[in-house]
Amino acid sequence: MKVDIRDAQDLLVKAIRRREEASVANDYERLEKLRALEETPDDYLLKKTAWSLLFFSAPLAFLILPLVLGLVDKYLPAQTSQLLWFSAKSFMAVVLLSFLFSIYLTFKEKSSY
After folding, report:
1. What was the pLDDT predicted at 113?
2. Quick check: 34 and 24 in contact, CB under 8 A?
3. How far is Cα 38 from Cα 99, in angstroms, rounded to an integer?
């Protein structure tokens, strides 16, 4: 089964739009603004969402999580500590890959003009 990147991008954009609609379901003013933005290009919406997620996950992955693990590390068994550090480093790798993906989306959009 071969997955086309364009199909995956369309599926992700549809999920983002559904999540935005669900978050403003009872606020009619924001719902009207969202409907007005329905013509927002998919590439822009994907780029905006990627940078927004990165804005929150990067400080968590590279500042808060290592600080908390460093403080709690003394009180945990060695195997648990190693497992938590491996998980934290894996999360850091995912955040770094999403950062590279966000950069790619930003420069791809600028070169398409």
Report:
1. 44
2. yes
3. 26
Tokens at 105, concatenated: 């989306």
Give the E-state strand segments of the chain in sequence order.
none
CA distances from 106 to 12, 14, 53, 80, 89 (A): 17, 20, 15, 39, 26
CB half-sphere exposure, 42, CA atoms < 13 A: 10
- Residue ranges covered by each domain of the chain: 1-40, 41-113
CA distance 12 to 46: 8
pLDDT tens profile 27-76? 777 767 766 666 667 777 788 888 888 999 999 999 999 999 999 999 99
Q: Is the pLDDT of residue 111 over 70?
A: no
- Compute the 3-state secondary structure of the chain and give helix, strand, coil in percent, each to the nearest 5: 90, 0, 10
Share of the chain above pLDDT 70, in %: 81
